[in-house]
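Weekly structure sync, notes
Attendees: PL, DS, HV (note-taker this week)

Item 1: Acetylornithine aminotransferase
DS walked through the input record. Source organism listed as Vibrio aquimaris. Sequence as pasted into the shared doc:
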Amino acid sequence: MTVESKVERGLFDEVMVPCYNPMEMVPVKGEGARVWDQQGKEYIDFAGGIAVSCLGHCHPAMVNALTEQGQKLWHLSNVMTNEPALRLAKKLTQVSFADKVFYANSGAEANEAALKLARRYAADKFGPEKSEIIAFKQGFHGRTFFTVTVGGQAAYSDGFGPKPGDVTHLPYNDIETLRAHISDRTCAIMMEPLQGEGGIIAPTDEFVQTVRELCDKHNALLIFDEVQTGNGRTGHFYAYQGLGVTPDILSTAKSLGGGFPIGAMLTTAELAEHLKIGTHGSTYGGNPLACAVAEAVVDIVSDPETLKGVAERETWFREGLNKLNEKYQMFAEVRGKGLLLGAALNDEWQGRARDVLVAAGKEGLMVLVAGTNVVRFTPSLVITKQEVEEGLSRLDKALATLSK
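Item 1 (cont.): predicted structure, written out as tokens:
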């Protein structure tokens, strides 16, 4: 019998591809909005695995769903269907505009399916020359080559050879530029209903309405990337429901499984017809384990009480951050919606978002950044008042060390 050597952070540098630079601490246990590292140090989690852990860590409903399903059936190919996948799909159509669901394993894969559907629909219905995809600068849609090209951050897509063509990037919230550019060659506009990675940028009502109108005028499909905004994050089950604009295709992932990998593309029956047998697929898409966990998540998150609680928690965060700002004069504004919030640093603190993240970590608080100037908060949707207060008190200590 071999004695297992202790797993330490140094092992990462030895065995992992160096495209990440993880923190020194290694988490081993989580419960609710708290996490413990190998040394037993406790952290409050305001990061939520980047808007994934919507019910916190190890929520009993999720643990039960996984345990029960894990004793029944783990995997089938798409030569068959399964009960959890069908139950979840029915629920997703009940909480959204959609009639039909395609399962994937991640946000990038859900977006890949959305983009392929848009291109296929345009080709079938209008011909091959209708292929332009319009997306927005600073947008983020995943890391596959198609989705990273559609994403509006060249740093992520440059240096891998020729990119998929006919993708145009325009400024977010700029109606005139969009109006001047869109044409009958445009097959789809893809956008986040609240830009996440790009700095927590909300669309104006006028912008989002105009995008919908221009899509209708030019027979283009509107794709909402709700990977980060979906599943209760903004206080609506999907963010589009708070904007008064309905997309044709919606992608969802991240918090859909509350930490178990699953993604889905949602669309109408009319559009779904264009992905005929064999045109797209996914080996693990619709996996019974993932769907069972996601069903438990959707049941809790879609409860009106949970959604109402998101708005309440947003208030706790805004009030707490405003108090800290009175003390340290660090933030220009707190923006975002629900529990997708960004504290934008003022002129004096430009470029120091990561410093805040590192200082918070030392005080036992996990936060995120969105670019170099925004500290991002995407905690559990059911985080307790006590956990929020404790986390903000740790942030207070962190900011104190930085402002010295």
